[in-house]
Amino acid sequence: MAEQPTRPTGTSPAAGNAPPESEPMSSGPKKSSVGIHGIIESAHYSLEEMGPRRSLQTLLSVNHVDGFDCPSCAWGDPDPEHRKSAEFCENGAKAVAWEATRKRVDASFFAQHPISDLRERDGHWLEAQGRLAQPMHLAPGATHYAPISWDDALTLTAERLRGLADPDRAVFYTSGRTSNEAAFLYQLLARRFGTNNLPDCSNMCHESSGAALAETLGIGKGLITYADITDHADLIIIVGQNPGTCHPRMLTALEQAKRRGARIIAANPLPEAGFGRFHNPQTGRGLAGPGTQLADRHVPVRINGDLAYFAGLNRALIEREDARPGSTLDRDFIDRYCDGFEAAAAAWRALDWSEIETLSGLSRGTIEDCAADVLRADSVIVCWAMGLTQHRNAVATIREVVNFLLLRGNIGRPGAGPAPIRGHSNVQGDRTMGVWEKMPDAFLDRLRDEFDFEPPRAHGLDTVDSIKAMRDGTIDVFIGLGGNFASATPDTDVTEAALRGCALTVHVATKLNRTHVCHGTEALLLPCLGRTERDRQATGEQFVTVEDTMAMVHASRGRLLPGSPHLRSEVAIIADLGHTLFGEDLGWHAMRDDYALIRRHIEHVVPGFHAFEQRVRQPGGFMLPRPPRDSRTFPTSTGKARFTVNPPTAHEVPPGHLLLTTVRSHDQFNTTVYGLDDRYRGIKGGRRVVFLNRDDLRDLHLGDGDLVDLISVNPDGERRAPGFRAVRYPTPRGCAAAYFPETNVLVALDATAETSNTPTTKSILIRVELSRAR
pLDDT of 187-198, one tens digit each? Predict the structure, then answer.
């Protein structure tokens, strides 16, 4: 068994031991978003990466019914008749340009750059070199990646898989950008091989949402539509989410809701530009006028104080109901459709307001004001993202959100319901297609009946457990379908060492990233088509499908010619590997040649996909069934929506310590960094900054601009991320923020959410010290 490191020291650029960038400058946070600056940034970036003709060819096809789905976030689309010519945001334009760039990484690039050189580069530099153009192989002991043919690459992979003592010594990881067709084929490949080791990026983001929603409502997805926000909601509570940076097209929908009269509460530790005045670049009011103020109320909840905040809201609603029975709660809904109410109500009545205030960081008056907003609203939506899901008590927090919605019947009617806002553009679809290490037996039974083989039944490894297994020497082959595993996961040094301990690492990717230089004894890079590119197979040009955060399934068709003759689609790569391993037993090449055959199989295996081919060809696609929304039917263990008891907790912070949350910069999507500026937070020229409250700076005897080290405190030892600039910022007292993936090195592998096993990257206990490099 491999030695288990307990005190990672941050030795890689990704982990944070690289020299500081050029001095980052801070000018303070902005109070408005988009406007002319968004147009200028989008145009500048697109023209630089793609040129004028290619920019027009791609950007005018993004998110249109005859075009391709944006490779960025999973935000939903308006109805086809309401879409604008430019149906993309600044970050979407950057994501498209990042993929459709004219730069290429080919054999000559790898001949010039030994792997030792590439390891010293940061992720921004690696991805900025351009598109991977041909299959590459790193032989055992080699100093450079070298070209390899597709046949040889697939044969090598198949031979290493066949040589394993047990199928469970392989891991099949998936990124959320993978299409439905590729995801379905990928889980089929893994299960045909004999393992349920199917970790994916959902394990690191909305796994907590799925666990809480499945337990309480019977379905692990959100229940709203685009029109629920724009046309029906009276109150929208956005908690633990920064739409201006992470889901910028959401701002347009929020503006429509505001213009209709809806109110918006933003509950978030940091004041974000996306909650301020929105200057819609497609309206005169946005470009030349005052814009639209989106948030009516900013609630500066402390980091990890959300459970206490919603418990306080629920306590306030119960108090009002007790004072005037029938005035506050929807008792008819509760009595007909729910169970567990009396136990939950008793727990709320027993709560102490002083404890709620301490844990949430909010006054009772602030919470009561929010409750007054709730009482004025007939229909309420709660939106959330990673700010809720990546804490120790994340599942309990989301259960409490469900409690809040159930109290006033805000489930199963227009303009109401839970809305976990997904990140990657098809991360929800991947799970629907069966990319999960714990798929239920009913799904596996249908897979068996459709393909005439017996899938494995033992649950497989999720992301965190896969890292542990690689660390411990019980995984030999790691295959990654997209993504940037080493940078996206916690405990960076441990994860990179775990990858290096594999016998073979295989990465299907569009661009070079940090994970590709944290390779096994032997490694393959297999370049694939991107969303923007045409996919032509033996039966003609193909399209794929995706599912957005609102359970809409629609088609995606690339428009550009492939960036290299050596590129293959993800579907083709998976199918060819399946054929190399098993022959044509399941019709691998037939499915590769005609994606409609894959969709026919999906019809028979995945609920809700009847008449898949016909319905997805309709403009805008179709919506998947969600029983709690459709008919107030709750497929839980009791057949009813479930109230739960969730005692308020929060991360304890000893004197002299702070609680750190990780955030994206505005010039970033997940681990992809488009530039070193964060316009909305006033940061220019660097990412190694930590945002600190003015009073915390004073108490720590630090000054604005000091160079500091961040040290996380964990049961198995401390972890250090050196060389960050302290930036005075309006965070709640005792709370700090810094960018990921630079701070992922601070997150212990064992620091995960209860039930979901999601890394707790949003609540990291740290000390801040003057930098050793000072």
Answer: 999 999 999 999
476-487 pLDDT per residue, tens = 999 999 999 999
Q: Mean per-residue pLDDT for 490-514?
A: 97
Once rounded to an integer, what is the mean pLDDT over residues 721-736? 97
Whole-angstrom Cα distance, residue 281 to residue 68?
22
| DSSP β-bridge partners for residue 73 | 424
Burial class (CB in 10 A: 0-12, 13-18, 19+), 9: middle
- What is the distance in angstroms between the CA of the first residue and the CA of the last residue of the chain? 39
- With vertex at residue 413, the alpha carbon angle to CA 408 and CA 414, rounded to the nearest 5 degrees, is 115
Six token digits for residue 480: 């990654």
CA-CA-CA-CA dihedral for 599, 600, 605, 609, to nearest 10: 70
CA distance 698 to 703: 7
**Distance between CA atoms of 673 and 125, rounded to whole angstroms?**
9
Q: How far is CA 301 from CA 267, 312, 361, 387, 730, in A?
A: 6, 12, 6, 11, 12
Strand order in the sheet with 522-527: 146-147, 136-138, 522-527, 504-509, 477-481, 170-174
Spell out the domain ranges in the chain: 25-30+653-770, 34-99, 104-203+429-618, 207-421
Domain 207-421: give its CATH superfamily.
Dimethylsulfoxide Reductase, domain 2 (3.40.228.10)
Instruction: Round to whole Å and give the CA distance between 759 and 744.
Output: 10
pLDDT higher than threshold 50 for residue 532:
yes
Read off the amino acid at residue 185: L
Share of the chain above pLDDT 90, in %: 88
| Angstrom distance (rounded) from CA 303 to CA 59 | 37
Integer Cα distance of 601 and 222 in angstroms: 26
Q: Which residues contact 335 (CB under 8 A, 6 or more apart)?
A: none
CA 218 to chain centre: 22
The HSE-up count of residue 265 (CA atoms within 13 Å, CB side) is 27
Q: Specify the pLDDT at position 184.
A: 98
Q: What is the pLDDT of residues 598-619, one digit of tens each?
A: 999 999 999 999 999 999 999 9
Residue 130 phi, psi (nearest 5): 120, -170
CB 385 within 8 A of CB 371: no
- Could you give the angle at the alpha carbon of 600 between the alpha carbons of 595 and 606, nearest 5°? 115
Q: How far is CA 434 from the centre of its chain?
A: 18
Measure the CA–CA gap between 362 and 355, rounded to whole angstroms: 10
User: How would DSSP label each residue in 518-586?
Assistant: S--SEEEEEEB--TTB-EEETTEEE-EEEE-TTSEEEEE---BPPSSTT-B-HHHHHHHHHHHHHTTTT
**Average pLDDT value over all residues in the chain:** 94
C-beta of residue 14 within 8 angstroms of C-beta of residue 487: yes
- Residue 443: count of CB within 10 angstroms of its CB: 17
Answer CATH for 25-30+653-770 from 3.30.70.100, 2.40.40.20, 2.60.200.20, 3.40.50.1100: 2.40.40.20
Q: Which residues pair with 384 in a beta bridge?
A: 239, 420
- What are the distances in angstroms from CA 20 to CA 83, 121, 701? 43, 13, 22
Fold of domain 104-203+429-618: Rossmann fold (3.40.50)
Q: Which residues contact 312 (CB under 8 A, 6 or more apart)?
A: 351, 353, 356, 360, 362, 364, 367
What number of other Cβ atoms are within 10 A of residue 681's Cβ? 26
pLDDT tens digits, one per residue of 661-705: 999 999 999 899 999 999 999 999 999 999 999 999 999 999 999
The per-residue pLDDT for range 400-434, each reduced to its tens digit, is: 999 999 999 999 999 999 999 998 889 999 999 99
User: Measuring CA to CA, how many Å separate 610 from each of 372, 600, 622?
Assistant: 44, 9, 11
CA neighbours closer than 13 Å in the CB half-sphere of residue 497:
22
